[in-house]
Design brief:
Elements: H1 2-26, H2 34-57, H3 66-87, H4 90-113
Helix pairs in contact: 1-2, 1-3, 3-4
Length: about 120
């Protein structure tokens, strides 16, 4: 049940990010609506809390946990790139957006493989 909740909020988080980037390009004034400003924070908070709960439920700190550290590190990079994607204009906006999506893909692959260096 907890894993399903976590996966659901991953999809909600990614969908809200993509939606906000599109809105920022089409009609940026919509980003000032209170629910559009607050909802992503609520979604991402539940996502992070469920992720922490999964770590303890799975007892993953008892074994090799380097992959968890890698996911957390890349999560911070994703957050920074997401902020840039929402604030920048032109080509830089889309480069930050693409890099943020690549971070999400990396985090997903690491979650499945439990290997931070799956590409080696």
């Amino acid at each position: 049940m907890l894993k399903t909740l976590h996966l659901t909020f991953i999809l909600l988080s990614l969908s809200s990010f993509i939606g906000r980037v599109i809105i920022s390009e089409i009609k940026p004034t919509l980003l000032e609506i209170k629910i559009i400003k607050i909802a992503p924070h609520i979604i991402n908070s539940i996502l992070i809390i469920s992720g922490i709960a999964l770590i303890f439920q799975g007892n993953w700190f008892a074994s090799d946990y380097g992959w968890i550290i890698a996911k957390i590190f890349v999560l911070f990079i994703y957050i920074g790139l997401g902020i840039l994607a929402l604030k920048l204009k032109g080509q830089n906006k889309w480069l930050a957006f693409a890099a943020a999506v690549l971070c999400v893909i990396y985090i997903g692959v690491v979650a499945v493989t439990k290997n931070a260096f799956f590409f080696l």
